[in-house]
Every structure is written in structure tokens, then in C-alpha cells.
User: Which sequence fits this backbone?
């Protein structure tokens, strides 16, 4: 039975009912909807809008409906369109006219808005816990690899020697910023829309501050029209998800490269790898590849809702029914991705010797060789040219910089002396860094200590 049927002279078409219904996906908001309805019923009773006995009966029955839903005893119908009307229909079937009084002083517009915000508050908390677990794993790995030397890259070309801990801490900072973004997003999600009515408020003497306290919101939205039409908070959540997924995707791209034979820096645990249906030797980093792929999915969720909202006049429009599926999908995607990623990196094997060997070649100590000449009083730009000529000579002769003889060094500059070999040793190159936030062993230890 339609709860709005009085205005209409004929029944809606079955095809229209099917197209209009959102119960197929918004049924996951059943707990939030009942929580909001219980608070609303308490407020109606407190304010004398309905009697205390009616309020108590509604609350008691709503709790019974919640138990029945969680026990699998309730079957929702598309005739009641959405989760809000399904629950109200169940309530009315059980307690008759008293159940019909629950909707006094509210609209589905503010009802769905409060449900959605309650849902996102919980999703942000759960996502934050997942990021915290990832950060703890990254810190632990960094502590284990303070002295694991590897190549640092720019343009995917070997650039300067760094440590694996330093590299991991760069990602730690990305995900730490993600936590900050979600926390900041929470401040805008955590605002109560309930009590706004359809858009203009209500003639009943309601108590929105009471609703705020009962539902655990930090503040009340001050304008009813904005409260029911706003989906900025959902867009912001999707943006936070997209940025975090982008960070995961960047990391996954590196792990995929590192696990290849060409790099040989890591090996994924068998439990987080797959094989080939035709090539027996294959061990594929499919979990990392899936996360990289799901990042595009999260971007799609974000753009979907941006596009829905871009031309909407105030206040509520049915277009906003399309807000939930992308948000539900993004929330599920990021939690699953964070969880499997954390498990994957905590079980991978780091091939330290391969990393160290790669750090020796590729002329990554060239900058340190230039700095060595600077210490001898030669202007840096001239040093850059001298070392560039040396690298070209080494490439043509199949040598590393530290394999040059002293005569070869001096053929490029008389400033070179025996201490050049110590200066361009890759470990010393790392140790020599003095700036705050550098890859030196002491700096990395301090960065880890600061995280505690």
C-alpha cells in the first residue's frame, strides 16, 4: 500500500514501481532508519506531539522490527518503494493507527538525510580503523628495514640510493594525510538534518537539539532547505575515498614492478598471489592489480554523484536517490582494498640483496660525486658537467663510478683523491645526508620515532 496514495486517482504502473523503488539497495540503511525513527518518536513523546504511551509503543515495536530484520524474518517489498516506507508499513501493520503517527513533523527528505549521515559516520570510523592498521604495518616494516638499501627513482629511472624504510615512510605520510582528510570530512557529516521537514521546517513544536543529542550528532544544520538538498558530505567522502585509493594504487604499481623478475625486489606470499591457467611458472600479483583496478571504480563512483548533483535546483529532487549506490560501493571498495593490501604487504618477502645490488649500479652516486667536488671548491654547475662526462665514459666502458681507477678519476679533474671511493659508496651516500627528512639512517630512525 502506498503511503502517499490519497492524491492519486489511479494506481502507478508496475514498471514505474520497479523503476522508482530503491529498496533493492537502500535496505542496508535499515538500522540507521530505525535508529532515527526511535529518536524521532522519543522527541514526539517528549514534546507532547503524541502521547507518552504512543511514543513508547512505537519505540518498542521499532526495536522488535529491528530484531526481526536481523533475524531474517522480514521481507521488504518494492510496493513500499524504499527502506523508510517499508519500515513504516511494518510498524503500521503491527500497531495500527499509532504507527501512522510516527511520521508527524518529518518528511522522507530529512529522514533519508539523517539515515545517510548516520551510515557515513560509521563508514568513516571503520575506514579510519583500516587506515590505522595499515599505518601500523608500514611502521613495523620501516623499523625492520632502516638499513635495507635500495634505488630511489625519478621518472622510473634510478636516481639516488635510499633505504626501503625511507620509501615506506613516504607512503606512511600519504596515508596519515588520508586519515586527516576523513577526520575533517567527519566534521561536516556529523551535522543533524532531521527536523527540517520536506524543506521549510514544521509547524510542530519540535526539539532538534534533543534529536542531536539522542543521535550523537555534533551540531544541527541551521537551514532546512540546505539540510535536505545537501550531498556535499557524500561528495567529500567519495573524494577522500578516491585520494586514498589513488595512494593504494601508486603503491600497488610499485609492488607489481618490484615483484617482477626484472626488478626482483620482493616476492608476494603465495596466499596473496594467483597462477596462470596455461603457464605453470607464473605467480601473479593479482591482489595488487585488483586494487589498482578498483581505484578506477572509486573514481567512477565519485564522478557519478558529482554528475547527479551538478544541475539540481533546491531543494530535494528524486535524482538524489542515485546518491546511495556509488557511496555504498565506494565504502565497500575502500574497506576491502585497505584490508587486503595490509595483509599483502605484511606477508611479502623483501629481497634485500637484490635491492642493494640494484642500488650500486645505475650511477645513483653521481650526485654525491658532484657534491664531493663541491667540497673541493669547484662550483656545482661545473661539477655537474664533470660528473656527467664521467658517467658517459662509464657507460661507454661498462663500468660503475666506483670501478674507475684513480688515473681515470684525475683525467676528469685533479681535485679527485683517494677519499672519493669512500664518498661514493652507496651506504656512505645515504649516511652523508644531513637535511631534516632525508634518507640517512639517523633521519629515518628519527622519523620512525616521531610516529610513536
Assistant:
Amino acid at each position: 500500500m502506498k503511503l502517499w496514495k490519497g492524491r492519486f486517482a489511479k494506481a502507478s504502473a508496475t514498471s514505474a514501481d520497479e523503476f522508482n523503488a530503491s529498496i533493492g539497495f537502500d535496505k542496508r540503511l535499515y538500522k540507521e532508519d530505525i535508529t532515527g525513527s526511535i529518536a524521532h518518536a522519543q522527541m514526539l513523546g517528549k514534546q507532547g506531539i503524541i502521547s507518552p504511551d504512543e511514543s513508547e509503543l512505537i519505540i518498542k515495536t521499532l526495536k522488535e522490527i529491528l530484531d526481526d530484520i536481523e533475524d531474517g524474518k522480514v521481507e521488504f517489498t518494492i510496493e513500499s518503494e524504499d527502506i523508510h516506507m517499508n519500515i513504516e508499513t511494518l510498524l503500521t501493520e503491527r500497531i495500527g493507527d499509532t504507527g501512522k503517527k510516527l511520521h508527524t513533523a518529518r518528511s522522507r527528505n530529512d529522514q533519508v538525510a539523517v539515515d545517510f549521515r548516520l551510515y557515513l559516520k560509521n563508514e568513516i570510523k571503520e575506514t579510519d580503523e583500516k587506515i590505522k592498521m595499515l599505518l601500523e604495518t608500514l611502521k613495523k616494516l620501516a623499523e625492520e628495514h632502516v638499513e635495507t638499501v635500495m634505488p630511489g627513482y625519478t621518472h622510473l629511472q634510478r636516481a639516488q640510493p635510499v633505504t626501503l624504510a625511507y620509501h615506506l615512510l613516504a607512503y606512511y605520510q600519504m596515508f596519515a594525510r588520508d586519515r586527516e582528510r576523513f577526520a575533517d570530512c567527519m566534521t561536516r557529516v556529523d551535522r543533524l538534518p532531521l527536523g527540517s521537514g520536506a524543506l521549510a521546517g514544521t509547524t510542530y513544536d519540535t526539539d532538534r537539539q534533543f534529536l542531536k543529542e539522542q543521535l550523537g550528532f555534533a551540531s544541527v544544520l541551521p537551514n532546512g532547505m540546505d539540510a535536505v538538498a545537501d550531498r556535499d558530505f557524500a561528495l567529500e567522502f567519495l573524494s577522500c575515498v578516491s585520494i586514498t585509493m589513488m595512494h593504494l594504487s601508486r603503491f600497488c604499481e610499485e609492488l607489481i614492478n618490484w615483484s617482477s623478475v626484472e626488478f626482483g625486489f620482493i616476492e608476494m606470499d603465495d596466499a596473496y598471489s594467483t597462477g596462470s591457467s596455461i603457464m605453470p611458472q607464473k605467480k601473479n600479483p593479482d591482489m595488487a592489480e585488483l586494487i589498482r583496478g578498483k581505484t578506477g571504480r572509486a573514481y567512477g563512483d565519485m564522478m557519478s554523484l558529482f554528475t547527479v548533483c551538478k544541475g539540481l535546483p533546491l531543494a530535494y529532487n528524486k535524482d538524489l536517490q542515485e546518491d546511495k549506490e556509488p557511496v555504498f560501493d565506494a565504502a565497500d571498495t575502500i574497506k576491502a582494498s585497505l584490508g587486503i593490501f595490509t595483509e599483502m604487504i605484511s606477508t611479502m618477502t623483501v629481497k634485500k640483496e637484490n635491492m642493494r645490488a640494484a642500488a650500486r649500479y645505475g650511477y645513483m652516486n653521481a650526485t654525491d660525486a658532484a657534491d664531493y667536488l663541491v667540497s673541493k671548491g669547484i662550483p656545482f654547475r661545473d661539477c655537474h658537467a664533470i660528473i656527467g662526462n664521467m658517467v658517459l665514459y662509464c657507460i661507454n666502458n661498462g663500468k660503475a663510478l666506483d670501478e674507475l681507477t684513480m688515473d681515470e678519476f684525475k683525467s676528469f679533474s685533479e681535485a679527485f683523491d683517494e677519499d672519493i671511493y669512500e664518498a661514493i659508496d652507496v651506504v656512505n651516500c645515504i649516511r652523508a645526508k644531513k637535511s631534516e627528512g632525508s634518507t640517512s639512517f639517523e633521519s629515518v630512525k628519527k622519523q620512525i620515532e616521531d610516529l610513536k
User: Anything to note?
Assistant: The radius of gyration is 31 Å. The chain has a mean pLDDT of 96. Residues 242 and 296 are 9 Å apart (CA to CA).
